[in-house]
């Protein structure tokens, strides 16, 4: 089978499309024929080795895929061959086949396609838990979300719109503002990333906002905390500011964390504010809260069936073009989810121009003449190098005498011509 394999932590060149053996099914697992894969910012961090306890390279990348059940392992209940499912395994999702423990697999609602499932499941599950399980979003509240144009950001905006009278402030790059303003679910107030947007928020909400959702970390933590009103909730669910270059930078990681002011419990007590964090990967794979996550997935699928939310897909890529897809996400140019399709044909690669293509074409005769000149020049150089120092000195003396005689003859001739002219 084809799979996206990380051969070593680092840049895009470490990501390869390789042929791997088809997985064998263990007890409690489902074998899934993958039709679509979700690309998340966490995948970029894995590639760089910027997460805790990554697997040993080489390994198959990916945390999210959707497709069809091809085989059911022993001890699995509630699933049958042919079921349309979406899975959130710990790695190994970006392949044509994947064996996943059934606790990480969810049935897709009727009418949902694999591409929609891969664009929705992880992002909307994260957004749902952030808004309703942790922040307690309710009618009339205000919300500030970073990376508002990304997959989770768009999910947050859509889910927030299911609650009446919620004011949404979205922070993103200036280049995305026009597209977001024209979207089906517009954001109330768009703010430019990199600017000090605090004053703009205060103009609309002088007292501050009720909720801040931060996936960046770094100095945004301090700004976000200062914008919280009393009883406000600040939730950190990522640290994408750590990913500043193609490869891991310890300097970037250290800078992001050191830019965060230290907030003591006493300060939280005095300010009447809440500071919390959320990590879906740890919650599922390390802390075992799969049933809690399943409840959130079922709720977003119910909202999808009711037509209240709809996944926003930025673009779809072939497995072979995963590096280009990663680069687009790294550059923060996507609006919505980036999806990989194993059945999609890769983009044609540009032909490498031949060497000397721009040079003037030469005839065979001209080339031969040039070769002869080169040979003659090389022979002359070799002969010159063989001459002794004494021979070279003699040549210099002869040259000097010749030059002197020529000059004398010229002078004598000139005198004779002058005598003739005077006579």
TrEMBL record:
| This protein's record includes keyword Endoplasmic reticulum | no
Concerning CDD domains, the annotation shows: MDR3 (cd08275)
Q: Where are stretches of biased composition, namely Basic and acidic residues?
A: 361-375, 383-400, 411-423
Q: Which residue intervals make up region (Disordered)?
A: 337-423
The protein's matches in SMART domains, at most eight in alphabetical order, are given as:
PKS_ER
Keywords, sorted A to Z: Oxidoreductase
Query: Ranges for the Enoyl reductase (ER) domain?
Result: 10-340
The family note in this entry says:
Belongs to the zinc-containing alcohol dehydrogenase family. Quinone oxidoreductase subfamily.
Q: What is this protein called?
A: Synaptic vesicle membrane protein VAT-1 homolog-like
**Source organism of this protein record:** Nicrophorus vespilloides (Boreal carrion beetle)
Q: What is the lineage of its organism?
A: Eukaryota, Metazoa, Ecdysozoa, Arthropoda, Hexapoda
